[in-house]
Amino acid sequence: MVAPALLPELWTEILVPICAVIGIAFSLFQWYVVSRVKLTTDLGASSSGGANNGKNGYGDYLIEEEEGVNDQSVVAKCAEIQTAISEGATSFLFTEYKYVGVFMIFFAAVIFVFLGSVEGFSTDNKPCTYDITRTCKPALATAGFSTIAFVLGAVTSVLSGFLGMKIATYANARTTLEARKGVGKAFIVAFRSGAVMGFLLAASGLLVLYITINVFKIYYGDDWEGLFEAITGYGLGGSSMALFGRVGGGIYTKAADVGADLVGKIERNIPEDDPRNPAVIADNVGDNVGDIAGMGSDLFGSYAEASCAALVVASISSFGINHDFTAMCYPLLISSMGILVCLITTLFATDFFEIKVVKEIEPALKNQLIISTVIMTVGIAIVSWVGLPTSFTIFNFGTQKVVKNWQLFLCVCVGLWAGLIIGFVTEYYTSNAYSPVQDVADSCRTGAATNVIFGLALGYKSVIIPIFAIAISIFVSFSFAAMYGVAVAALGMLSTIATGLAIDAYGPISDNAGGIAEMAGMSHRIRERTDALDAAGNTTAAIGKGFAIGSAALVSLALFGAFVSRAGIHTVDVLTPKVIIGLLVGAMLPYWFSAMTMKSVGSAALKMVEEVRRQFNTIPGLMEGTAKPDYATCVKISTDASIKEMIPPGCLVMLTPLIVGFFFGVETLSGVLAGSLVSGVQIAISASNTGGAWDNAKKYIEAGVSEHAKSLGPKGSEPHKAAVIGDTIGDPLKDTSGPSLNILIKLMAVESLVFAPFFATHGGILFKYL
Question: Residue 545 in contact with residue 505, Cβ under 8 Å?
Fold first, then answer.
C-alpha cells in the first residue's frame, strides 16, 4: 500500500478553487485599474484618480498639453475608432460562434452515439478495462458524461476568446491616450489589460475543470477510470473551438492586413494605419479576433488537454487505484500554484519597477518569463513535496512503474525550463535587436527575392534548438515517469500560462493603440511610443507562439500515449504496413492543412486588394483626406471570407481521426498521430518564426534607430518596399498556418483518445473484411 500525500484531501478541495477565485479576482482588479483611464472628452477625465500620483498614477499632466494638441476632438476620435473596432470584432465573433455552435451540437451528438454504441447502448455495469476484477459504470454513462464535458470545454474556450477580445478592444484606445503621458504609462495599461485575459483564462479553465470533476464524481463514485475517461471530452471541446477560432480569426486578420499593406503602403505610399486606407478598421479588428480570441482559445485548449492526459494516466496508476484524491489532483495543484506565481510576477511589471524609456520595454517583458519560471520552480517543489506520496506507481503500457516524488518534480521542471529556452530562442530569431533579423533586413537591399530567401532560411534554422529542447524534455520525463511524466512536463510548460498570455495579448493591444494614434491624427511622438510598444509586442507574440507550439508537441505525445493505452495497443511497430501508411499520411496532413489556410488568406486578400483599389479609384477626395472611405465593406469581405474558408480545414482535422480509426483501425491511426506530430511541429515553428522575422525586419527599417537601419530606409525606399513584401508573405505564415498547426496535432490526438473505446471495438472494418 502506497502512503498518501502529505496534503489532506480536504485541503486540496479548498486550495484549488481558492487559487482559481484569487486569479479571477486579480484579473477583475486589473480591469478596474485600466477602466480608470477615461474615454471621454472631459480633459480632466483621463487624469482621474488624482489620489494615486505614484509611478502608476493617473494624475500626471499630459506631455502633449504644451504642444497644443490635447484638444477634445482627439479623445473623441479615439473613442469613436475604438467603438468601430470593438463592434467589428464582436460582430465577427458572434457570426463565427453561430456556425461553431451548430458544429458543437452536431459533434456532441456524434460523441454520444459513437461512445454509447461501444456496449450496444447497454445500461449495465461492465468489468473495468485495466482491472477486470472490478466493475465500472456502463459505456453509455461515459458517452453521456463525455458529451457534457465536451460542451463545457467548448463553451469555456469560446468564452475565453470572447472575453479576451472584449478587454483588448476596451484597452486599445486607453493605451493610446496614456501614451500622451509617456511610454511607461502606455506600457502599464497594455500589460494590465493582457493580464486580465491571462488570469481570467487560466483561473476559469481550472475552476470549470475542478467543478466538472467533482460533479461527475457524485455519479461515478469509486470508478475513477470511467470518471477521468469522461473528463477527456473537456479537452476535446476546448481544442475544437480553438481550431475554428484560430483558423477563422487568422484568415480574417491576414486578409485585411495583406490588403491594407499591398495597396496602402506599396501602391499608394501612405503610412500604416492611415485613416484614408479603407481596410484599416478591418486590419485592427483582425488583430483582436485572430491574435487575442484565437490565441486565448488555443492556449486554453492546450491547458485542458494537458490536464486531461495527465488525469487519464493517473486514474489507472496507484493514485487512481488507491483513490488518493490529492495526488490525483497533482496537475490541478500545479496550475493553482501557477496562478499564484504569475500574480507575484505581474507585480514586477506593474508595481515594483517603472519603465521610463523605450529600451526598457522588451527587457521588462522578458523578465516576466524569467521571474515566473524561477519562482515556479520553487512552487513545483512545494507542490511535489506536499501533494505526492514519496513513492508511487505510474501506468506504463500494461505495467506499473515505480516513481519517486522528486522524479515527478524534475519532469515538471524540465517542461517549464524547456518552455523558457524555446521562448528565448524564438526571441533571438524574431527580435530586430539581434543579427538574424538584421541580416534579413540587410538582404532587402537587393530586393524582395533575397529577403524571402533569407527569411525562409532563418525559419528553418530556428527549428533546431526548440526541437532539441522538446526532445530532451520528452526523454527525461518519459524515463522518469512514462507518459504521465510527459503530460506533467507539458503542464509545467503551461503552468505560467497567465503570464504567457499577458505578454502575448499585450502585443495586439499595442498594435491597435498605434493604429488608433495614426487614425486620430495624434502627433509623431505618440506614434513613436506606440510603435516601440508594438515592436516589443511583435517579439512577445512570437515567444507566445513558440510556447504554444512547444507545449502542443508535449501535450500531443501525452495524449498519444493515453490513446495507445486506452485502445489496447502494446507497441506501435513502424515496420508494419498498417503503421507506416499512417505515418506517411499523418506527416502529409500539416502540409495539406497549411495549403488550405494559405490559399484561403490569398483568395480573401485578393478580394480585399480589389476593393481597396476600387475605393481609391472611385471615391473623389479619398487620397486628399477630404472624403471618408467605406470601412464596412472591407470588414464584410474579411468576415464572409473567413467564415466560409474556415470550414474545409476544420473538417480535415476533425474527420481524419474518425475516418482512419473507423476504416483502418487503431494501429493506422496511431501512425497518423505520430506522423502529424513529427512534421507539424517543425512546420509550425519555422512558419511562425519566418513570419515574425520578416515583420520585425520591416519594423527595423521603419524605426531607423541604428546607422545600419537608416541606410536601408526611410519608409517608401526600395529596401523598405522589399521588406513590406516579405512581411506580407509572412503574415499568413505567422498568424494563420503556423499557429493553427499546433491545434491540428493536439486536436487529432485528443479526439482519438475520446473515441478510443469505439475504435477499439468497431474500428478497422476494411482490414477485418479484406
Answer: no
pLDDT of amino acid 43: 42
Task: State residue 322 phi and psi, 5-degree precision.
Answer: -90, 0
Percent of the chain with pLDDT over 90: 52
Q: Determine which helix (DSSP H) or strand (DSSP E) holds 507, and give its type and residue range.
A: helix 497-519
Residue 145: pLDDT band (50, 70, 90) is very high
Q: Give the side-chain half-sphere CA count within 13 A for 355.
A: 28
* 602 three-class SS: helix
Strand runs labelled E in 216-328: none
Neighbours of 535 (CB within 10 A): 26
CB atoms under 10 Å from CB of 221, counted, come to 11
Cβ 272 vs Cβ 265: under 8 Å: yes
Residue 222, H or E segment? none
Are the C-beta atoms of residues 117 and 138 closer than 8 Å to each other?
no
Cis peptide before 714 (omega within 30 of 0): yes
* Residue 520 to residue 80: CA distance in whole angstroms: 9
* Cα of 487 vs its chain's centroid, Å: 18
The helix (run of H) or strand (run of E) holding residue 395 is strand 391-396
Asked if residues 75 and 173 have their Cβ atoms less than 8 Å apart, the reply is: no
Query: Residue 64 to residues 61, 69, 100, 172, 560: CA-CA distances in angstroms?
Result: 9, 6, 46, 19, 57
What would the pLDDT profile of 209-262 be if each residue is shown by its tens digit?
999 999 999 998 888 888 999 999 999 999 999 999 889 988 998 888 888 888
Confidence (pTM): 0.89
- What cell does 84 get? 468601430
Place of cell 487503431: 666
Q: How far apart are CA 767 and CA 726, in angstroms?
A: 48
Do 331 and 231 contact (CB within 8 A), yes or no? no
Spatial contact of 556 and 749, defined as CB atoms under 8 Å apart: yes
* pLDDT tens per residue across span 402-436: 889 999 999 999 999 999 999 889 989 998 889 99
Question: How far out from the chain centre does Cα 558 lie?
Answer: 19
Q: What is the 3-state secondary structure (H, E, C) of 201-219?
A: HHHHHHHHHHHHHHHHHHH
Backbone torsions φ then ψ of 404, nearest 5 degrees:
-95, 160
| Residue 126, SS3 per DSSP | strand
DSSP 61-91: PPGGGGGT---HHHHHHHHHHHHHHHHHHHH
CB neighbours of 324 closer than 8 A, spacing ≥ 6? 2, 4, 5, 318, 389
What pLDDT score was predicted for residue 3? 64
SS3 content of the chain, % helix, strand, coil (to 5): 80, 0, 20
